[in-house]
């Protein structure tokens, strides 16, 4: 039996043809697809694991993040009034949502129009937002809205995703410095938090419930959001961190009607909150 030798003119280039640009693009697309899939799955995991985070762990995160805001805040009469209003709302929360909690407001004297829910049971309210309000009821709705984010742990989802993405970046880029400061990443995540429409609606529902429980009616529930909606595109931070869809006010009005809430007389702003 004879064996046929391969042609002598076969070269290494013939046996291993160069990879075409098309093959490279396919490989790159598969790699990016795997990365995106992993990030999506990990993000989904974060959304479910936030319910397993003990309150004490959340408070520990707060000890790392809140001091950055405390340095900006000022213990003014306005902050005291806001905390009193928050306490009235907190008393209307279900018992399980009040256990091991100590909600408080930090009032930041800055023209930014925004409010933030921060791990550690802290609500950040900027002077610019208070200046936009025209009644105590409007501020109660905003505070109740932020309590809604706490109840649904939306603030932890944003923080968890930020830390997760930093970890992925550190892994792929070899930048261990990206993980050195949880405090910095936490402040960054919270300041840029962008909630989904469903998260916003859930927070609005709780805000509306608490507002009605405190005042006995839903007056002022939509006033603040209606005015901000008219100012869309004016660079107001609240509109970027708390997206206000076109039908948001309509949904609140529909909820008021479905629940049979009355719309009574609103309470004026306390003197210490009036410029």
From TrEMBL:
Signal sequence segment: none
Cofactor annotation comment: Binds 1 zinc ion per subunit.
Pfam families in the cross-refs: Peptidase_M48
InterPro entries, alphabetized: Mito/Outer_Membr_Metalloprot (IPR051156), Peptidase_M48 (IPR001915)
Keywords carried by this UniProt record: Coiled coil, Hydrolase, Membrane, Metal-binding, Metalloprotease, Protease, Transmembrane, Transmembrane helix, Zinc
Transmembrane segments: 24-46
Residue stretches in coiled coil: 79-106
Cofactor(s) the protein needs: Zn(2+)
Source superkingdom: Bacteria
Record domain Peptidase M48: where: 85-254
Family designation: Belongs to the peptidase M48 family.
Protein name: M48 family metallopeptidase
Organism: Geitlerinema calcuttense NRMC-F 0142
